[in-house]
């Protein structure tokens, strides 16, 4: 007996030692096994087969309940190669602790080696279909050869390990506790870097914190604040590895999600529906990662040229005459403006597709006046359609009932009723096959009254001022799922529709909620192109991957504060990574009253948002440039004129984005990933690879501490035109007086096309072109210009256009034009070549001597020419 007792004690000791080893995990490496509450309950934790340690000395965010190193999950079997890659069966390990109810016993792993730099893998239920996001992704014929990645599979405790072949860096390692139940799917992965970007929409810096940071994905009408789920859902991140190589990972899933990052570093994905559908992109440059991502979700739309001008809006004009007065005052003050907008106060009783014929009686005449002056008009449309108007008097409701296109209450099968601006409303179902017919009827009917040029779709998360519906929600597993990500409001129905609301073909809102903005954008863009036979222009509040194919985005109801001014740059950087480059914030802020200094600084910054619109709410002070005194208008006007100067360059960047999926505005980490200082900067940004923008973002400041990555940089502000910074990767203090110019620098190695600015794009397009030539340290530079009529649809490839390459080599600037039947004049009149301090002995243009040359500011050769850019030229100096 004594021997048996000793033997049992040794066994118990051995079990304790093994258990200690299994649970001996550093704090930073703990993967949360109990995400519901903090702290975890010990009994519930151990029921899941997880480790419990309530060490009070650790940070409160460190999990008390965490997975052991040998957590039993799925086992891989029946592994076999396929024409696309390989596949296998996943079986829940016998004896595994149940993490959540309804764990799926049999799964299928499908791995697609899609391209040399793109891996795609899915984990699906082996026995029945689950919801999959219906966006079109590239079809695959056969597996790629010579991939930049290697995929290894761990069998007994299933996990995928994805490694970059050339460096051996592990991009993904998912061997930690994958969970796949009906309403809780989880996958964790180690990360090769703490430098993570993307994962939005969120309110914060461009660099994502990996210090126990939980991010939420469930579209919501939510004023931007940190740690809240906002309007859009973009489960895509980019990581920049230590050597500067970049990779990207994308989870294609539209259900409510959360992502938890931890300092080891690692990342855990959780979603409560659909499937795990991942794409991995190997870059290796950050810009190539974005291109590979947009190749999957779709390239960006090509905007009409006029949309690159300055936009002006306010909720609270109160009448068409007040709106018109602002337009006239802007013209009188000679401040550039291309587009005038109206918020919901233009509507009759806040009904979509109407206008108030009492207060906005002159709206048709105002829009006609805008068009006669080369300007454009856009109005807001909300998805909520009033269902309380007298029978037969409101076509938007009547036709929706006839076409059966409204989201339905699962209890009655009648349209579910919520409450938005007009009161009781119903909601169009943008998954319905009749939706384009319905939407076209409404938009074309309104265009017969008001000849609008674009559409602003708002409140399309969809927003609902009551929880779920005016009659509450059913009691079921979709309204109260076993696990709810930590969304704002605590419930999926908070400020939106019931999760079990019915869409077309028995699809439930639980699955498609976050797709609403994307699907409305798609319908609006397609209908606008059909109605107007021109490029559509759509701006949406709610977005999802692929939204950039159909329009742009603004960052919602930000406040008139200096922190929100600064944060807006990160938003622009992020949405360019998300494939939505037409993006900007409400210049001077939406809510709260601005002041002169803040609004000047915001106008200087906002002049370089890809989408540049000043907009604010009622009951706050007016903040259009002409709402300020004449001295305040001066720096605002100058900032906009500088924007208009560079519009040809911006348009070319948008064309590159449309064709190649490149970013338009980008963070310094995109362009300089090997520079560890540049990786952390989000108070400066670039247009393309050539123009560095360094705004002044702090109250009472007249200087900017700007970072310049290695290379030559040339000042292109009026005050210091041509001044050169030869940087080794350093900060420089730049003068930025309030009444001066925003600091702008052209990067050596770039040739940037520009055009003399005017008060709108119709007028500016008639002005001569300018070329800014910025040699690098070897005396070389290059650049491009894309040009067309600015509004013809690009879809059929027959548009008349010209594409021009500029090359500087050996004191010779050459252009190479590929003209596709474009016939309008494109005269260039001025060429500025930076870095030349002595006037050359001879300057020739197409082998003819040029007389009009000068050295500007002692550092720049300015040459006056007269030539059509559609023809090749050669400028040479000795």
Automatic annotation (TrEMBL):
UniProt KW Transferase keyword: no
Any GO BP annotation: carbohydrate metabolic process
Top-level division of the source organism's lineage: Eukaryota
Annotated Gene Ontology cellular component terms: membrane
Ranges of residues in domain P-type: 21-69
Compartment(s) where it occurs, according to its Swiss-Prot or TrEMBL record: Membrane
Signal sequence segment: 1-20
Pfam family name, one: Trefoil
Entry keyword set: Disulfide bond, Glycoprotein, Glycosidase, Hydrolase, Membrane, Signal
Any GO molecular function: carbohydrate binding
Matches recorded under Gene3D superfamilies: Glycosidases, glycosyl hydrolase (family 31), Golgi alpha-mannosidase II, Spasmolytic Protein, domain 1
Family, as annotated: Belongs to the glycosyl hydrolase 31 family.
UniProt name for this protein: P-type domain-containing protein
Organism: Ciona intestinalis (Transparent sea squirt)
């Amino acid at each position: 007996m004594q021997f048996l007792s000793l033997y049992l004690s040794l066994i118990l000791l051995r079990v304790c030692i093994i258990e200690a080893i299994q649970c001996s995990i550093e704090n930073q490496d703990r993967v949360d096994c109990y995400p519901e509450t903090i702290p975890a309950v010990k009994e519930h934790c151990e029921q899941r087969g997880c480790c419990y340690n309530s060490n009070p000395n650790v940070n409160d965010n460190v999990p008390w309940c965490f997975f052991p190193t040998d957590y039993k999950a799925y086992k891989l079997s029946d592994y076999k190669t396929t024409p696309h890659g390989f596949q296998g069966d996943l079986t829940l390990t016998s004896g595994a602790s149940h993490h959540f109810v309804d764990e799926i016993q049999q799964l299928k792993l499908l791995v697609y080696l899609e391209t040399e730099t793109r891996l795609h893998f899915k984990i699906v239920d082996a026995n029945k279909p689950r919801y999959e996001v219906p966006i079109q992704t590239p079809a695959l014929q056969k597996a790629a050869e010579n991939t930049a990645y290697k995929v290894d599979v761990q069998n007994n405790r299933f996990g995928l390990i994805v490694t970059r072949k050339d460096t051996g860096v592990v991009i993904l390692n998912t061997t930690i506790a994958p969970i796949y139940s009906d309403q809780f799917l989880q996958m964790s992965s180690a990360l090769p870097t703490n430098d993570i970007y993307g994962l939005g929409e969120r309110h914060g810096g461009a660099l994502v914190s990996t210090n126990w940071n939980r991010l939420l994905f469930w579209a919501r009408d939510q004023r931007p604040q940190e740690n809240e789920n906002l309007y859009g859902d973009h489960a895509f991140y980019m990581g920049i590895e230590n050597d500067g190589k970049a990779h990207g990972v994308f989870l294609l899933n539209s259900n409510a999600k959360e992502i938890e990052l931890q300092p080891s570093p690692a990342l855990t994905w959780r979603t409560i529906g659909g499937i795990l559908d991942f794409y991995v992109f190997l870059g290796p440059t950050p810009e190539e990662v974005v291109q590979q991502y947009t190749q999957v979700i779709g390239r960006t739309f090509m905007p009409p040229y006029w949309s690159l001008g300055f936009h002006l809006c306010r909720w609270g004009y109160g009448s068409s005459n007040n709106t018109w007065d602002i337009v006239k005052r802007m013209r009188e003050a000679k401040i550039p403006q291309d587009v005038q907008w109206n918020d919901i106060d233009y509507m009759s009783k806040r009904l979509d597709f109407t206008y108030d014929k009492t207060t906005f009686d002159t709206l048709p005449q105002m829009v006609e006046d805008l068009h006669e002056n080369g300007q454009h008009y856009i109005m807001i449309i909300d998805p909520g359609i009033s269902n309380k108007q007298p029978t037969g008097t409101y076509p938007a409701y009547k036709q929706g009932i006839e076409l059966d296109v409204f989201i339905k209450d699962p209890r009655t099968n009648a349209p579910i009723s919520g409450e938005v601006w007009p009161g009781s409303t119903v909601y169009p179902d943008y998954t319905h096959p009749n939706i384009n017919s319905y939407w076209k009827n409404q938009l074309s009917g309104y265009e017969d009254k008001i000849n609008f040029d674009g559409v602003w779709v708002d409140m399309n998360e969809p927003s609902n001022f009551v929880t779920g519906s005016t009659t509450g929600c059913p009691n079921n597993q979709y309204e109260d799922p076993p696990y709810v990500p930590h969304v704002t409001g605590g419930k999926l129905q908070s400020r939106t529709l019931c999760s079990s609301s019915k869409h077309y073909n028995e699809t439930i809102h639980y699955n498609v909620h976050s797709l609403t903005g994307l699907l409305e954008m798609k319908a609006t863009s397609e209908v606008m192109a059909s109605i107007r036979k021109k490029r559509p222009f759509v701006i949406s509040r709610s977005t999802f991957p692929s939204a950039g194919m159909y329009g742009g985005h603004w960052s919602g109801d930000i406040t008139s504060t200096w922190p929100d001014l600064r944060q807006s740059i990160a938003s622009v950087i992020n949405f360019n990574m998300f494939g939505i480059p037409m993006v900007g914030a409400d210049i001077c802020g939406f809510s709260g009253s601005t002041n002169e200094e803040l609004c000047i600084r915001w106008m200087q910054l906002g002049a370089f948002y890809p989408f540049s619109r000043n907009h604010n709410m009622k009951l706050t002070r007016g903040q259009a440039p002409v709402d300020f005194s004449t001295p305040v208008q001066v720096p605002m006007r100058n900032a906009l004129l500088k924007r208009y100067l560079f519009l040809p360059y911006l348009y070319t960047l948008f064309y590159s984005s449309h064709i190649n999926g490149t970013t338009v505005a980008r963070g310094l980490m995109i362009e300089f990933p090997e520079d560890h200082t540049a990786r952390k900067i989000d108070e400066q940004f670039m247009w393309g690879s050539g123009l560095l923008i360094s705004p002044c973002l702090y109250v009472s400041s007249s200087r900017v501490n700007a970072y310049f990555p290695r290379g030559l940089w040339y000042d292109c502000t009026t005050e210091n035109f041509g001044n050169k910074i030869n940087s080794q990767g350093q900060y420089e203090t730049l003068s930025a007086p309030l009444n001066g110019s925003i600091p702008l620098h052209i990067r050596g190695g770039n040739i940037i096309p520009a055009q003399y600015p005017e008060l709108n794009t119709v007028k500016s397009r008639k002005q001569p072109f300018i070329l800014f030539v910025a040699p690098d340290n070897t005396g070389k530079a290059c650049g491009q210009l894309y040009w067309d009529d600015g509004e013809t649809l690009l879809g059929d490839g027959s548009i008349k256009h010209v594409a021009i390459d500029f090359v500087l080599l050996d004191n010779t600037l050459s252009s190479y034009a590929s003209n596709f039947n474009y016939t309008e004049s494109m005269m260039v009149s001025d060429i500025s070549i930076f870095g030349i301090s002595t006037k050359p002995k001879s300057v020739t243009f197409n082998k003819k001597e040029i007389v009009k040359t000068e050295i500007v500011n002692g550092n720049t050769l300015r040459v006056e020419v007269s030539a059509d850019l559609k023809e090749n030229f050669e400028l040479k100096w000795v």
